[in-house]
């Protein structure tokens, strides 16, 4: 596999990218509403925590996959600063995708102390929420701040992808899409 240089991400990296993107975008925009569900049900918070922990597990797996299967080389015309900006964005995304669920978990003791009825929260209706240590830090604020930072980074990431595709007309976006390899289909 490694002998013929890849021009696109492999199918596992692509699937994880788009699955995590969909779950995360849902959480970034509807996650807060799920936690604030009025009427006292545990369904909203349970869904928030279930999807959030799925993102964490998938991200850890994705990171391991990436270390074992390095990404394809950048298109040759990409300037060194663009490659550095791309790498910095990727690193920051990974830190946020792990940091957000962890700070969320660390925010649960305070949340539960306000919302007594929420002790019935489960992960996918199966696992009880593991008790988190109370660190005495404003974990909810960290959790929220990191979520907002992710929205800003996502805007930058998407604009960069669209700019490369429609303005520079290079293969940056195609590397993450399950389309036929342009280099091999052109005769
Ligand atoms: C990537 C996944 C996640 C995202 C994007 C996310 C996003 C958010 C957002 C936007 C809020 C609202 C913050 C505010 O009130 O302004 C929130 C609240 C909260 N999240 Fe998450 N969350 C994620 C995962 C988790 C996980 C895995 C847990 C717990 C294990 C968790 C626990 C909480 C708690 C307890 C609150 C409410 C804090 C409070 O109101 O006191 N979150 N989350
Ligand atoms: C919250 C959602 C998203 C997150 C967290 C995210 C994160 C990432 C990460 C970490 C990578 C590096 C590849 C890897 O290590 O697997 C990547 C690559 C990429 N993403 Fe996203 N992404 C998101 C949404 C999107 C969207 C909506 C688009 C399209 C408009 C997009 C287009 C791309 C492209 C084209 C690449 C490959 C570029 C490169 O190799 O530098 N992403 N993304």
Task: Explain the layout of strands and helices.
Layout: H1 11-35, H2 43-68, H3 80-114, E1 122-123, E2 127-128, H4 139-168, H5 182-185
Antiparallel strand pairs: 1-2
Helix pairs in contact: 1-2, 2-3, 3-4
The chain binds protoporphyrin IX containing FE (2 copies).
Describe the structure.
With 187 residues, the protein is an all-alpha fold. It has one domain: Fumarate Reductase Cytochrome B subunit (Up-down Bundle), CATH 1.20.950. Helices cover 64% and strands 2% of the residues. It is built from 5 helices and 2 strands, in the order H-H-H-E-E-H-H. It has a two-stranded antiparallel sheet. A hairpin with a 3-residue loop joins strand 1 (122-123) and strand 2. The longest helix is centred in the middle third of the chain and has 35 residues, at 80-114. It is elongated, with a radius of gyration of 19 Å. The two termini are 23 Å apart. One protoporphyrin IX containing FE binds next to helix 1, helix 3 and helix 4.
């Amino acid at each position: 596999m490694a002998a013929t240089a890849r021009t696109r991400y492999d199918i596992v990296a692509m699937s994880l990218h788009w699955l995590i993107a969909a779950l995360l975008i849902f959480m970034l925009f509807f996650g807060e509403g799920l936690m604030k569900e009025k009427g006292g049900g545990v369904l909203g918070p349970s869904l928030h925590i279930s999807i959030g922990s799925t993102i964490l597990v998938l991200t850890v797996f994705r990171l391991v996959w990436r270390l074992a299967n390095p990404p394809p080389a950048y298109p040759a015309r990409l300037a060194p600063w663009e490659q550095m900006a791309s790498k910095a964005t990727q690193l920051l995304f990974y830190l946020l995708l792990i940091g957000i669920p962890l700070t969320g978990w660390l925010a649960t003791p305070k949340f539960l102390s306000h919302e007594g009825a929420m002790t019935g929260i489960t992960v996918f209706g199966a696992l009880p929420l593991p008790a988190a240590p109370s660190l005495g830090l404003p974990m909810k604020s960290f959790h929220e701040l990191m979520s907002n930072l992710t929205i800003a980074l996502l805007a930058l990431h998407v604009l960069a992808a669209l700019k490369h595709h429609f303005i520079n007309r290079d293969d940056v976006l195609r590397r993450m899409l399950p389309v036929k390899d342009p280099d091999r289909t052109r005769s």
